[in-house]
Amino acid sequence: MKKQDPIENLAERINPTTNEDEMKHLMQALDKEQSYREHKCWRQYITVIVSVVFCVFQLYATLLGRLPAQIVRASHLAFVQFLAFLLFPATKKMPKNTLPIYDVVLAFIGAGCWSYYIINFEQLVRRAGAYTFLDIFIGLIGILILFESCRRIVGLPIMIIAGCFIAYAFIGKYLPGFLNHRGYKLTRIVSHLFYTTEGIMGTPIGACSTFIFLFILFGASLEKTGIGQFFIDVCNAIAGRASGGPAKVAVLSSALLGTVSGSSVSNTVGSGSFTIPMMKKLGYKGEFAGAVEAAASTGGQLMPPIMGAAAFLMADSVGLPYVTIVKAAVIPALLYFTGIFLTVHLEAHKLGLRGLPKDQVPRFFPLFARQGYMILPLAVIIYFLCTGKTATYSALMGIISCIIIGMGTSFFDIAKGHKPRFKFNDIIEVFCAAARSIISVAIACGMAGIIIGIVTLTGLGLKMGAGLVALAHGKLFITLLLTMISSIILGMGAPTTANYLITSTITASAIVKCIYGNSPITAEQLLPAHMFAFYFGIIADVTPPVALAAIAGAAIAKAKPMKTAINATKLAIGAFIVPYMFIYNPQILMLGANAASIAYITITALIGMFGISAGLEGYSFGKTGFLNGTQASLEVKKAFSVLERLLLICAGLLCIIPEKRTDSLGLVLMAALIGFRIVARKLENSKMENAA
């Protein structure tokens, strides 16, 4: 394999016909979580055995539930730290087929620190905070090891942020204003972060070691059934022959694949290797093709029923059942993907692009009759979530259904004299994939636990919330704007999980304070603020200058990365608008709303998304421009085209603002603009016919 190039050169190096090895190299270059060692000798058996034992332990702890929560969390961290240093090299440039002795040492030290906690758990409880020098020393080493694993796998930004919070705990007594506190010594900080459930072993790791792990295991099991290709085939059958078909396939398949993959980059590369070359072949520009895939793939984490680890943490943090989070995400996700789909549709009509030939598109009903059973695990998990079962129980049922389907397909394969598609080795591979995938999530949760621990220790959360409100002069919109900016900045260098935990800890209280003041609030009233931070943390994957998902799409399309990122941001405009909608009108999250009001809000918002998409694209029922077809100069035509686009955007925003008066104005303006455009197009067509 060639030496890894810098990220900015990937788009020039990888062509639209990339193979599996190039796709893998691309993911490793863009996503630290994918840059792991692949041991080919006796070392692979160590990682396989540890991964399998890890998964078996997690299933045992979840099914029986007899172990204390601290033991489960500490054991989870011990496995994670051990695998982190066995699988991930110190730098990306280091060879992936070696295992330096210092990484072996770090693996045992990292696991040993948490093993010390497990072995001495009863003594630590009996001592009730009277920690010895050895306790503090072990805790300090454990924190430092966690920082190093974070640097390798998650990245520097969250490590630097966590380090700043720890520094704040030391020097708080020297700081002015609301940042001032009495200051804490090393012993107090280490004991609070390492030995209590308010630090590293806090709520994030608690969620990670239970239902998040199970859903990651479910995702790995689902992927092994081949559901990813099935989703692409189904979407191709539905939309492949429509105008601009491959782009619509990209939107639909990425929404579905997001249910399986929790990574924007992995989703972009996985489905983009198929859809982006097809889009380019049809006539879309490379920058637009890469942007469509990046925007749609990034939104996969917003798509119910499985929305990534951050959604599970949100349920735990807010105190609502996971099914409530899923229901709340339905309409926002619909609006997000509708915005992308409409833009793709309008671009296709503007360019005069057709769909794929009939012989290149699979037939829906024969496809579903042949492979429709693959959808059963998702149906099972949705059923149990909707019937009130816990997320843990639903995930377990989903895993069991995947195994049953795998064994069933193998039985029929053997009966037909073919090789079985699902073998015992596949179960081992699923365990290894799940163990590898949980590492980055667990480390991000551990680092977020450090930040949350310092916030609770120093009381910074309430102070920061009050400070943010003061900075915004009590204005809700300015508070939301500041929260949006901070979430996007954090999201540029941190995974969604860590981003959500940090921003929700600091800013959610500020948003709630602006809305409700000091009045007591319910969990449902807290949800919109948390969902707001969640959305903007995710959208950072397509927002320049980092925009990892957009860079991945640009690399496959052989396009300019920043131009692709700008196009992706334009396509993902819904993610910048929808969060403000559910802050000002929580009914869009299905909170305290009846069916009629939800339907009204959804319809007007969809109309609004059409207006915004048409304005950004410069096409509705024809190319924008009031003076098209006249003898006016080109400059004047462009000016009037810009005016019509601005009016379409304004009409769309008025429809989206959750007030009946603005909805009425927006609908009237939208109807007038569309009516004028339809009449203008007919006049232009008649002139062309007369001229012919």
How would you characterize this protein structure?
It is globular and about 95 Å long. The N terminus is likely disordered. It is mainly alpha-helical.
Task: Quickly list its features.
692 residues; mainly alpha; 30 helices
Per-chain topology:
Elements: H1 10-13, H2 20-30, H3 43-64, H4 69-87, H5 101-119, H6 121-127, H7 133-153, H8 156-171, H9 186-195, H10 203-224, H11 227-239, H12 245-257, H13 264-282, H14 286-298, H15 309-318, H16 322-351, H17 364-371, H18 376-386, H19 391-415, H20 424-458, H21 460-471, H22 476-491, H23 496-516, H24 523-539, H25 548-557, H26 561-571, H27 573-584, H28 595-617, H29 634-656, H30 660-691
Helix pairs in contact: 2-13, 2-25, 3-4, 3-10, 3-20, 4-5, 4-20, 5-7, 7-9, 7-20, 8-20, 10-15, 10-19, 10-20, 11-12, 11-17, 12-13, 12-14, 12-16, 13-14, 13-25, 14-25, 14-26, 15-16, 15-23, 15-24, 16-27, 16-28, 18-19, 20-23, 21-23, 22-23, 22-24, 23-24, 24-27, 25-26, 28-29, 28-30, 29-30
